[in-house]
Amino acid sequence: MFSRTFTTIVAIALLALGSALAEGEVKRFELVARADVLNIGQGVNFKGFTFNGTSPGPQMVVQQGDTVEITVRNEDTVAHGLSIHAANAQTSNYVGNVMPGETKVVTFTADYPGVFMYHCAPGGHGIMVHTMGGQFGMIVVEPNEPYQMEVELEREPDLKVYLVQHEVYADGRDFFDGKALYVMFNGETFRYVKDPIMARPGDYVRFYYLNVGPNLTSTFHAVGGIWDYIYYGGNPENIMRGTQSVVSGPTDSWVIDWVVPDEGPFTLVSHAFGTQAIKGAVGILQSEEGIDRPNEIRSEGPTNEIEADPKRFVDPFGLGSIDLDSPVRFRSGDHMQIQMVGNSYWPKRAEVPAGSTVTWINEDVFDFLDGELTGKHNAVTVAAEGPEPFFSPLLNHAETFSHTFDEPGTYEYICSIHPYMRAMITVYDDGTTTTRSTSSETTAEHHGH
Fold first, then answer.
1. Do the beta carbons of residue 183 and residue 270 sit within 8 Å?
2. How far apart are CA 220 and CA 100, in angstroms?
3. How confident is the model over 232-259, as pLDDT tens digits?
4. Could you give the domains of the chain?
5. Which of 44, 161, 265, 290 has the fewest CB atoms inside 10 Å of its own CB, making it the most exposed?
């Protein structure tokens, strides 16, 4: 009787232990959303959005079957949120549209192995522009079954390289048109040219490669090497071998297993030379016998001090360096139009003769919802900026607002619901000005509003 009872207790305990192991551990992470200025290399500062002060944000690595708990804390003045591609669940119900000062938590089970993107997701239009603004990162779900190369070599990788490729845009117009200003690996142009990744001949190297975009398709390649095994999405069941590159659209990812064939250097590059490599998507894997090497290269952006006197300041939503956001000078008789596009004004700096009528048009298409979630915009003078105030109503897609400027001077203005949108108009006297009353006009003709 005692033996049977003891056996039953042991069996129950083993079942409970097996169930606990199957469910995995609980892994906890915190993401703090805020606006930041970052050093992105080459003497350039970038103003955008971050998680925990870097772009890409914190790297998260969990095991298949783990319970993942992510806390999102908003320290900014606008709404943020989180989309987690590793979760087979509607996480926006829990961490979408996190308001300033608010904290929200989401919990999910990491069911599928692979390399996944996470990014800011306040909702609607804000998802796209906050991703463009730099708010994203990598989450890796390690598989319970080994990758094929581990089986064949009977060992784990000597070096793990977590690599996020992403783009920087000077303004919303270029974002719409897919004209990236810079393309980089892990937050800095030519980061691993300046500081090569060290390895040895014969090393088993694994790349966790993710293209977050948000627009461009990459072709990741090692000059002088052929990838031994590649696994689409990082899932060990999605296996191919012997390829020269991996093709990745935005959010596409791969695990790449490779044995370094010789002494280097090996150039790591997006082979889209003219649109990506030449703009910063190049690195070096330096292979030498006996060289000291790390166990891993992480995907977080660098924490370099920002440049005190940068060669260039990039602000996709506001006023960047004058070489990027150059003044556009209009003359009498010109059609003077300013676009609201990608949560920025274009051109950001306009010069018009006194007496001119300037028209704003909203080219952002997602005009549903409200606040940070919408692509509705207006134009409102900053307090005490300019000789005379002006303000428009909120404009839906393709709606316009016109204002006539009589008084020379500089007028700085913002969107009241997206206050990081900032631009200026300089009104000059061309000697032909005739005084007339200032007027404003809003139109929604032929647009169904």
1. yes
2. 38
3. 999 999 999 999 999 999 999 999 999 9
4. 24-297 (2.60.40.420), 317-443 (2.60.40.420)
5. 290
